[in-house]
Amino acid sequence: MNSRDRELGMDRPIRRRDFLNGVAVAIGAPLVADYPLLAGQSGGAQPASTYYPPALTGMRGTHPGSYDTAHALRDHTFWNHADKPSDTGERYDLVIVGGGISGLSAAHFYRKAAGNGPRILILDVLDDFGGHAKRNEFDVGGRKLLGYGGTYAIESPSPYSPIAKSVIDELGIDPYSTPRVLDRKLYPSLGMGPGVFFDKETFGADVLLPDPKPIKDADFGDPGTTETHWKVFHEQAPLPAAAKKDIQRIYEGHDDYMPGLSSSEKKARLARMSYAKYLTEIVGADPAVVKYFQTRPHAYFGVGIEAVSAQDAWGFALPGFEGLDLGTEPGPGISHDSIQNDEAEKYWFHFPDGNASIARLLVRKMLPAAIPGNSIEDVVTARADYARLDEAGSNVRIRLNSTVTRVEHLGDVDSAKEVEIAYVKDGKLQSVRAGHCILACWHSMIPYLTSEISERQRKALASAAKVPIVYANVVVKNWTAFHKAGVNSVYAPGSYFNGFQLDLPVSMGDYKCPRAPEEPIVVHLMKTPCRPGLPARDQHRAGRIELYGTTFEAFERHIRDEMGRSLVSGGFDPARDIAAITVNRWPHGYAYEYNSLWDPFWLEGGEQPCVVARQPFGRVAIANADAAAYAYTDAAIDEAYRAVDDLLGISRG
Ligand SMILES: Cc1cc2nc3c(=O)[nH]c(=O)nc-3n(C[C@H](O)[C@H](O)[C@H](O)COP(=O)(O)OP(=O)(O)OC[C@H]3O[C@@H](n4cnc5c(N)ncnc54)[C@H](O)[C@@H]3O)c2cc1C
Fold it and tell me: Is-contact 322 254, C-beta < 8 A?
């Protein structure tokens, strides 16, 4: 350990679980899913009362050990070693592969449609249910703090469908009630607003400034008076003077940079060029401007402005289009994330653990004993009883730490009455049978699970390369340094993490958000690893590999370094102030969304791979947000409904 590491506090005890290089050691690979927490458990046994994944810190999300079996399948080494699965003797009406929002919603719809309490088994690789919708809990000096380890909020660029809304309604959630639970005025009342951190490796000096033009809401801080902020920006931002002038011109100018073209001609051109190219070649901005805007779209697209179309940047409300008179109607090729819709914007709700509460409410509906309580307020603080998820007498069972390795009809696909589902749990290869099966897992996994689909469908499924993303939650003992520095959120265009922010001030039921800077709080950091310059899918692939190879220790060092340097003016000391760290790693994160730069069919109106990918075969249907190529909770729900419809024809009544 060098002196910088000691300064950062890399030697300080914090709440986390360490693994050798961040990866659990696979004993005798590939059949062994070696996760120390579960040592000694066998398939079907009840977890001990101490089994409580939300409270684990360290590397979470796709946690160490969870992907060994899946990667052995991918590498074609699994079946070389595997024995025949041993039949558990369990028979179900429906087996669902994947316990994310889509899998849980599929169980919900199937139960409603099939009547008479169908027997359903949900299998998931991870040690907790909810898929991306994950909950992080922290205990800081006896006080419970919650964070979202994945899915942040009920929000979608397009309005929720009647089907998706019906689920939200049935769960008792009113997304229009946000003003009752979210205190938008808290941070502004403390003089805190959004900041920008320029790091010395990218910009030549470490400087934190108020953000002169924060993105909308910027996690509910005070955007401040723009005039003062521009003055400070011109005086202190470590950028060439020409670039600073250009940045203000891009934000506030009204020039038509594409004179002589109609609105639709402009949009057609914008759809075919990157935003970076638009800024430098059409707007004529100093190249340093690109560095400033580079990671603005990361949180949605997972790539920077050199890989996002200018039309998408316009739709996404990035600046530089004010004088182009583009109207409000998007042109062909606009991506889902760039559509603005007032109705969709109002349908917004954030639980303290994000949409993990939706997953928990769905589980509560099917297994009331597993999540005590009966309101959307008490679900926030309810402690789930994991021992109740997979009980022998129950009609619905959720079996965690179980990687499905094969799904096969028993007999001819078109006439078989049963499907056999093989899975590995605790290093044992087992099987169950079911009348129906829904694959609600990541589409890129499905070609490794079945040989019963066409080459065309296999390719379409494999093309759903997800966007890698990291959500880190860091508990700090107090946020006086944020208060002193005057920031509640920080955009860090050149740093390892794209930025960070204090948790949203949401109080529900017994859960009260921290309100005074002297209290502990969760700070949320985000990163979408990518390789600027490559096509988007290749960037995601490279980012995914990077994530698997990054140790917890490396994440921790970046967290301490970035927070320490950004907040130096507030007196933040990472060695003293950090109490706990959870890194939620999602190498398979957002569903890939089509866009005009990288998917010609999206611009020119060809067949969408997700439509080919989601076709049912025999007694098996396919769900997951990937089935809509749309990275939102409503898509996961809608596709669950469609998959149940594929099996039972529920939409036909
Ligand atoms: C970090 C992050 C933040 C997000 N924020 C938002 C947001 O704010 N609002 C929003 O609407 N959407 C958001 N999304 C997208 C949203 O989370 C997803 O669209 C939705 O939750 C996906 O649900 P799903 O069930 O389709 O997939 P998932 O949640 O990915 O669930 C699929 C499950 O399948 C399991 N699985 C995979 N292979 C196997 C196998 N072989 N055997 C058994 N199980 C398997 C996985 O472990 C996983 O649990 C976010 C996504 C991420 C990653």
Answer: yes
3-state DSSP assignment of residue 53? helix
Calculate how far, in angstroms, residue 96's C-alpha sits from the geometric centre of ligand 1.
14
Q: Sheet of 499-502: strands edge to edge?
A: 58-61, 578-590, 467-476, 521-527, 499-502, 487-491, 193-198, 207-210
Burial of 311 (0-12, 13-18, 19+ CB in 10 A): buried
Query: Ligand 1 centre from 125 Cα, in Å?
Result: 12
**Which amino acid, 202?**
T
C-alpha 342 – ligand 1 centre gap (Å): 26
CA dist., res. 619 & res. 416, Å (int) = 8
Residue from 589, 552, 583 nearest 468 by CA: 589
Determine whether the shortest distance from the Cβ of 70 to ligand 1 is under 6 A.
Answer: yes
Question: Would the pTM of this model clear 0.85, i.e. be above it?
Answer: yes
Query: CB of 150 closer than 6 A to ligand 1?
Result: yes
Q: 103 in ligand 1 pocket by Cβ < 6 Å?
A: yes
Tell me if 101 CB under 6 Å of ligand 1.
Answer: yes
Return the SS3 of 487: strand
Q: How far apart are CA 132 and CA 584, in angstroms?
A: 9
In this prediction, residue 38 carries a pLDDT of: 27
Tokens coding 541: 């692939």
Rounded Cα distance between 572 and 574, Å, is 6
pLDDT given at position 81: 80
Those residues of the chain that have pLDDT short of 70 are 15-47, 217-218, 225, 653
Ligand 1 mean position, distance from CA 133 (Å): 7
With a CB cutoff of 8 Å and minimum separation 6, the contacts of 180 are none
Maximal C-alpha separation, the chain: 74
For residue 122, the cross-strand partners are 96, 398
Around 248, how many Cα atoms within 13 Å sit in the side-chain half-sphere?
17
Phi, psi (rounded to 5 degrees) for 27? -85, 120
